[in-house]
């Protein structure tokens, strides 16, 4: 499916400006419409002892800061849109960021969010929060930004699961334009007798005009996430495609137990579907 409708999360955390510029350039490349969504924080009323009344000035100051953040976010978005000359829409909504993003993602082709920054003042983990129930794929942009190349050297983390298959199918518009695609599986040495775990998905992609190479990594005692990210770095990959699975209540993730590690440690964009 072509990417014609993109939603980007616009906040004021470190890395936001680069994320917005990347989203705008991706929209331009795909001749897509870009929607910028800024989620205003809720006013926090501190708990007081003995029913002490909170000064109204404290609440007003919070509102002032929240409004300044919204204005700064819109300025970043407008600048990126102007530089790329694309069709766009701006939305500002108050609420919990992950909840608002999930709702607005129901009518878009791709949602772009930022990797959680270790120095972020917002403690909510937006990427993990939007992986569930969006109805569309998610592209997580690392806080260090995106390199000069994107989706030209793609690595697919493959475990032959439904989420992984969904991610591959959803990413065809991107990987179909790549110069190089690797399907990478991680397995135990005892599984060698079961044949090539990447053969069928490589054959499937070839029918879509995508020539992919299958690679099998043997578990070596390291975390699976570390193995995958090291392989991506060693091979100069600029996009990682992987499936994710989350339990809506407990935020339990599978795919070798690596999804959260990947979101935390990645330095390249991750395209994922649930």
User: Kindly, what is the distance between the CA atoms of the first and last residues, rounded to a whole number of angstroms?
Assistant: 16 Å
- Structural category is alpha/beta
Strand content: 15-25%
Largest sheet: 10 strands, mixed
Q: Could you give the order of strands across the largest sheet?
A: 3-2-1-4-5-12-9-6-7-8
Oligomer: single chain
* Radius of gyration, whole Å: 20 Å
Number of helices: 9
Element string (H = helix, E = strand): EHEHEHEHEEHHEHEHEEEHE
Global shape:
globular
Number of strands: 12
Unreliable segments of 5+ consecutive residues:
246-256
Global mean pLDDT: 87
**Helical proportion, percent range:** 25-40%
Describe this entry's structure for a reader:
- This protein is of the alpha/beta class and 274 residues long.
- Helices cover 35% and strands 23% of the residues.
- It is built from 9 helices and 12 strands.
- It has helices at residues 16-30, 56-84, 97-104, 126-130, 162-170, 172-175, 199-207, 224-234, 259-265; strands spanning 5-9, 33-40, 88-94, 110-114, 138-141, 153-157, 180-187, 212-218, 239-243, 245-246, 253-254, 270-273.
- Strands 3-2-1-4-5-12-9-6-7-8 form a 10-stranded mixed β-sheet, with helices on both faces.
- Helix 1 runs parallel beside helix 2.
- The radius of gyration is 20 Å and the shape is globular.
- It starts with a strand and ends with a strand.
């Amino acid at each position: 499916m072509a990417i014609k409708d993109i939603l980007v999360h616009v906040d004021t955390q470190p890395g936001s400006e680069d994320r917005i510029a990347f989203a705008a350039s991706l929209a331009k490349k795909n001749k897509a419409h870009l929607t910028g969504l800024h989620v205003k924080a809720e006013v926090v009323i501190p708990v007081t002892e003995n029913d002490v009344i909170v000064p109204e000035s404290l609440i007003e100051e919070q509102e002032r800061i929240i409004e300044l953040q919204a204005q700064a976010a819109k300025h970043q978005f407008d600048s990126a849109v102007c530089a790329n000359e694309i069709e766009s829409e701006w939305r500002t909504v108050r609420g919990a960021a992950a909840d608002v993003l999930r709702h607005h993602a129901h009518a878009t082709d791709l949602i772009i969010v930022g990797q959680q920054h270790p120095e972020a003042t917002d403690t909510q983990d937006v990427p993990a929060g939007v992986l569930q129930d969006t109805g569309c794929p998610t592209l997580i942009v690392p806080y260090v930004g995106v390199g000069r190349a994107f989706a030209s050297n793609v690595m697919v983390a493959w475990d032959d699961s439904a989420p992984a298959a969904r991610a591959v199918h959803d990413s065809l518009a991107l990987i179909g334009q790549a110069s190089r695609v690797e399907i990478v599986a991680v397995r135990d040495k005892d599984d060698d007798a079961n044949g090539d775990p990447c053969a069928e998905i490589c054959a499937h992609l070839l029918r879509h005009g995508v020539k992919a190479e299958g690679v099998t990594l043997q578990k070596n005692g390291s975390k699976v996430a570390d193995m995958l990210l090291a392989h991506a770095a060693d091979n100069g990959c600029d996009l990682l495609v992987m499936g994710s699975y989350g339990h809506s209540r407990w935020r339990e993730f599978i795919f070798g137990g690596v999804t959260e590690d990947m979101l935390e440690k990645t330095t390249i964009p991750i395209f994922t579907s649930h």
